[in-house]
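Entry:
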Amino acid sequence: MVFKVGIISDTHGLLRPEAVHRLAGVDHIIHAGDIGRADVLDGLRRIAPVTAIRGNVDVGEWARDYPETTTVRLEGRSLYVLHDVNALSIDPTTLGIDAVISGHSHKVRIETIGGVLYLNPGSAGPRRFRLPITLATLDLGPGDLQPVIHDLGAG
C-alpha cells in the first residue's frame, strides 16, 4: 500500500479550490511555508493531518507556533522541510534524510543529489510572474520516492 503525501507551498493566504480537490485523499500534507493566514492550514487539516513550517511572510501571533524547519518521519522515511533551500544548513545525506522539501522560489524542482530527493512543489497561491500554479504529491511506498507535480490550471 502506498502512503500519499500532499506537498504545498507559498499559498500566501489563498487556499484554492483546485488545491483542495487535488489533495483530497492524501494521507498527510506538508506545507513548506509562506502560508499567509492560519485559515489556510485549517482548510488543509480538513483533508489530512498537516505538518507546516513558517516562511518569510508568515509573521504575527498565529505563525509563532510553526518552526522554520522540521523533520517529519512518515512510513519510515525522513523528510526535512524548510522554506528556502538556500538556507539549508545540514548535510541531509549524512543525517539519513530521504527528501528535502522547500518552497520560496515558486519554481518547481525535482532533483536527486547524493541519494536525497530535493522537491519544491512550486506555488499554489496567487500567481507570481508567469509561473504555473502547482503543488506536488509524493508517494511513499517500497522503492524510490515518487514525486508528481500537479498543475492546478488556475487562471
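The CA atoms of residues 3 and 140 lie 5 Å apart.
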